């Protein structure tokens, strides 16, 4: 009966406007009760606590500020009510966003990377498209759960004339930090994954370089726009070094039937690539995933699904040496308590495809 109750509660959540959801759910929370998009989990060994970061949602925290909230858990199943770990200071250039927060340890501190924008701060038009200022900013804290304070007055790390999002930290084999991000399709038409070298203060110290373009992935599909143009999306780059030393990147775009969690591999083993596109990991209107190690040693992936009204989804993964692979859906943790369209099925050899 517990699962039935969860499904009923979820149905209410998905059909109730956010403004009407005034009272946050009581802890402990389960993943189907947690609003989140672009989830990022830090497994803190010292405290044996999982920290799940996502955009602040007033319906969950009761806090209306623009920023990042964090849930905590000891077992990946039962979670505390979230609290705000970072709030954008008043007077900062940005007016909206707080997308794709990530937390990385660097030089004895914790750094939060998160994307903001201002639609009124227009950039030069790109054909009929009208890009505006968007970029990943940096905040720093002494503890993993904050509170975080902005670095360099909240100015984006990438050049402000580039419309960028979903910045992540990659530290190469020589110990040099890089910002890797998606260059927005709204400005480029074909979205790219790009990298900028950073200094030890995580400030840019060189020009951007393109790693690959969205339309290089055989499975990716362009998205038709109202003006008749077709654009290609890049989202959510995230890195993992396998046990054999292969460098792979999780990233997302759109396929034939919705959002896709994909994976690319560097042929050189380094950030410079060239990058080859592998078969996607999950195609069930799912994406913006990241990998982490559970305290029992399992390699795990968290992503959001579906894209609209997103909730968290956990997978047990396998380090296959030259790539990572999905082992199974961790339904004992996330309860699979949210709907998926019957025509959208995982595309793995062991699973039946539904013809619609």
From TrEMBL:
Highest taxon in the source lineage: Bacteria
Positions bearing the site annotation: Important for catalytic activity, responsible for pKa modulation of the active site Glu and correct orientation of both the proton donor and substrate? 166
Question: Pathway, according to UniProt?
Answer: Glycan metabolism; L-arabinan degradation
Protein family: Belongs to the glycosyl hydrolase 43 family.
Q: Does the keyword Signal apply?
A: yes
The record lists the lineage as:
Bacteria, Pseudomonadati, Pseudomonadota, Alphaproteobacteria, Sphingomonadales
Q: Name its species.
A: Sphingomonas gei
Q: Which SUPFAM superfamilies match?
A: Arabinanase/levansucrase/invertase
Q: What is this protein called?
A: Glycoside hydrolase
The residues the entry assigns to the signal sequence are 1-20
Q: Does the keyword Hydrolase apply?
A: yes
Q: What keyword terms does UniProt attach to this protein?
A: Glycosidase, Hydrolase, Signal
| MF (Gene Ontology) | hydrolase activity, hydrolyzing O-glycosyl compounds
Cited InterPro entries: GH43_arabinanases, Glyco_hydro_43, Glyco_hydro_beta-prop_sf
In the record, biological process GO terms are: carbohydrate metabolic process
């Amino acid at each position: 009966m517990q699962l039935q109750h969860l499904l009923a509660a979820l149905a209410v959540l998905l059909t109730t406007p956010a403004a009407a959801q005034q009272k946050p759910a009581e802890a402990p929370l389960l993943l189907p009760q947690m609003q989140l998009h672009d989830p990022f989990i830090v497994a803190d060994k010292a405290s044996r606590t999982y920290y799940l970061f996502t955009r602040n949602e007033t319906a969950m925290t009761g806090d209306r500020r623009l920023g990042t909230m964090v849930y905590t858990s000891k077992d990946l199943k039962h979670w505390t009510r979230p609290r705000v770990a970072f709030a954008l200071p008043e007077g900062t250039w940005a007016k909206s966003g707080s997308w794709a927060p990530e937390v990385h340890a660097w030089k004895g501190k914790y750094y939060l990377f998160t994307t903001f924008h201002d639609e009124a701060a227009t950039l030069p038009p790109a054909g009929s498209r009208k890009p505006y200022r968007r970029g990943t900013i940096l905040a720093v804290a002494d503890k993993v759960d904050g509170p975080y304070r902005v670095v360099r007055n909240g100015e984006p790390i990438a050049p402000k004339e580039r419309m960028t999002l979903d910045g992540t930290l990659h530290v190469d084999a020589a110990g040099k930090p890089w910002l890797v991000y998606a260059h927005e399709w709204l400005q480029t038409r074909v979205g790219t994954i790009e990298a900028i070298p950073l200094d030890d203060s995580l400030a840019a110290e060189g020009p951007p370089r393109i790693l690959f373009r969205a339309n290089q992935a055989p499975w990716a599909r362009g998205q038709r726009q109202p003006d008749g143009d077709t654009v290609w999306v890049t989202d959510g780059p995230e890195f993992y070094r396998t046990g054999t030393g292969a460098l792979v990147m999780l990233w997302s775009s759109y396929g034939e039937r919705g959002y896709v969690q994909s994976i690319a591999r560097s042929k050189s083993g380094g950030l410079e690539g060239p990058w080859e596109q592998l078969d996607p990991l999950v195609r069930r209107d799912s994406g913006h995933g990241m990998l982490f190690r559970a305290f029992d040693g399992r390699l795990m992936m968290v992503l959001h699904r579906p894209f609209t009204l997103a909730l968290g989804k956990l997978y047990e993964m396998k380090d296959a040496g030259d790539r990572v692979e999905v082992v199974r859906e961790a339904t004992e943790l996330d309860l699979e308590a949210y709907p998926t369209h019957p025509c959208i099925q995982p595309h793995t050899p062991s699973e039946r495809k539904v013809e619609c």
